[in-house]
Amino acid sequence: MDVKSLFASQQYAALKPATEPDPRESVAESFSKITEDFAQTLKSTEETAMGSMYGDADPHALVEALSQSQLAVETAVTVRNRVVEAYQEILRMPV
């Protein structure tokens, strides 16, 4: 392999990460999808609870909706706690 082709391949390898998609975009998209799912879960639970108060909903559907919303809230709190812990770890790092 001659020097020019070696130099060109090194430059190409150095520039390759610049052409890859930005991972932050996919993280932002997945986070927005998660928040939409969370809001939809809470909304459907609220609608089921209102229907139950008026006698339109099945009690089993209400229990199922309440358990789904409880799981969603517990998951959101766990994620929030992990983010706060990571932030505190960053703050404790020596500069």
**Average pLDDT, all residues:** 83
By DSSP, the count of extended strands is 0
Q: What is the radius of gyration computed over CA atoms, rounded to a whole number of angstroms?
A: 25 Å
Low-confidence stretches: none
Number of domains: 1
Q: Please work out how many helical segments DSSP would assign.
A: 3
Instruction: List the quaternary state of the chains.
Output: single chain
**Largest sheet geometry:** none
> Helix-strand pattern, N to C?
HHH
Percent of residues in helices: over 70%
Summing up helix and strand content along with how strands pair, one would put the structural category as mainly alpha
Strand residues, percent: under 5%
Shape: elongated
Cα(first) to Cα(last) distance is 44 Å
Secondary-structure map:
Elements: H1 3-19, H2 23-53, H3 59-92
Observed structural traits:
single chain, 95 residues, 3 helices
Provide an overview of this structure.
This protein has one domain. The chain contains 3 helices and no strands. It has helices spanning 3-19, 23-53, 59-92. Helix 2 (23-53) runs antiparallel to helix 3 (59-92). It is elongated and about 80 Å long. The two termini are 44 Å apart.
Task: Give a short synopsis of this structure.
With 95 residues, the chain is mainly α. The chain has helices at residues 3-19, 23-53, 59-92.
